[in-house]
């Protein structure tokens, strides 16, 4: 961090630096699911048997590059003054690890809450037809489809990701760590694979790939499972009933 703050301005680090970190984490974590689909490796862990075509993969990647350069990057550049005003800093020393952990936990909880309601709104008839349906073009998701969406949706649901940091004014290192973890989480839930080592097998409140894959393959008016990370919002508001019923049926089927 010392090298970075010595050789680059805070504006460069918070904007261009954040963009490069996002792109690196996103594409490096997202491309493996394309490789797995094309190669057939770990097919027994694939949630849906259907696979996307090479053309569908290419369309997704090209559209993502356009959206990231034309939407994400400008938003990062424009929003810097607001983050600076709210307390963003890059100077040393770094915050205590307890501060970093508590802030990121707060960000995950707040993001999940805001995302849940925003996502439910996007599943109303008009908004789904004109905005959110683009994200659902891929009924069989793979990692990179996590950010494949209408520009309006990118801005609308992106608010859920930035509201926590905007409220707390974190250190830039904390912001980068939060961004990386959030990207890894959304890529994982869109991966289309449920492995023995998937986080949802160890953290009961974490939704994971099975939870969100159900959302993609069911008719938009009945899909439920609107949360981004955790399961309790859908449980509290009864929007996971179809998914829970399916899981019970799967367990009963195995018993017989």
What's the mean pLDDT score?
A: 94
Helical amount: 55-70%
Residue share in β-strands: under 5%
Counting H and I runs of at least 4 residues, what is the number of helices? 10
Order of helices and strands: HHHHHHHHHH
- End-to-end CA span: 57 Å
Structural class: mainly alpha
The number of distinct structural domains comes to 1
What would the keywords be for this entry?
256 residues; mainly alpha
Descriptive report:
The protein is mostly helical. The protein is globular and about 60 Å long. It contains 10 helices and no strands. The model has no long low-confidence stretch (mean pLDDT 94). It has one domain. The longest helix is centred in the first third of the chain and has 32 residues, at 54-85. It has helices at 2-7, 10-39, 54-85, 97-122, 125-130, 151-168, 172-189, 208-217, 232-236, 241-255. Residues 105-239 form the Fatty acid hydroxylase domain.
Give a quick precis of the structure.
The chain has helices at 2-7, 10-39, 54-85, 97-122, 125-130, 151-168, 172-189, 208-217, 232-236, 241-255. It has 256 residues and is mostly helical.
Architecture blueprint of SSEs:
Blueprint: H1 2-7, H2 10-39, H3 54-85, H4 97-122, H5 125-130, H6 151-168, H7 172-189, H8 208-217, H9 232-236, H10 241-255
Helix pairs in contact: 2-3, 2-7, 3-6, 4-6, 4-7
């Amino acid at each position: 961090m010392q090298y970075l703050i010595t050789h680059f301005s805070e504006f460069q680090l918070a904007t261009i630096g954040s963009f490069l970190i996002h792109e690196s984490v996103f594409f490096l974590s997202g491309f493996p699911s394309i490789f797995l689909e094309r190669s057939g490796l770990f097919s027994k862990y694939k949630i849906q048997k259907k696979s996307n075509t090479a053309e569908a993969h290419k369309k997704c990647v090209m559209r993502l590059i356009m959206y990231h350069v034309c939407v994400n990057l400008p938003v990062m550049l424009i929003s810097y003054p607001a983050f600076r005003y709210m307390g963003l800093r890059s100077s040393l020393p770094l915050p205590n690890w307890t501060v970093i952990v508590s802030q990121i936990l707060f960000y995950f909880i707040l993001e999940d809450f805001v995302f849940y309601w925003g996502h439910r709104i996007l599943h109303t008839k008009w908004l789904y037809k004109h905005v959110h349906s683009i994200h659902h073009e891929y009924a069989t998701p793979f990692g990179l489809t996590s950010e494949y969406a209408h520009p309006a949706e990118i801005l609308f649901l992106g608010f859920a990701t930035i509201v926590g940091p905007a409220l707390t004014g974190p250190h830039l290192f904390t912001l980068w760590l939060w961004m990386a973890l959030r990207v890894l989480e959304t890529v994982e839930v869109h991966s289309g694979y449920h492995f023995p080592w998937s986080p949802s097998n160890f953290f009961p409140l974490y939704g994971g790939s099975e939870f969100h894959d159900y959302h993609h393959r069911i008719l938009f008016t009945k899909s439920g499972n609107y949360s981004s990370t955790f399961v309790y919002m859908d449980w509290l508001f009864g929007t996971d009933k179809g998914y829970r019923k399916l899981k019970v049926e799967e367990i009963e089927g195995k018993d017989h």
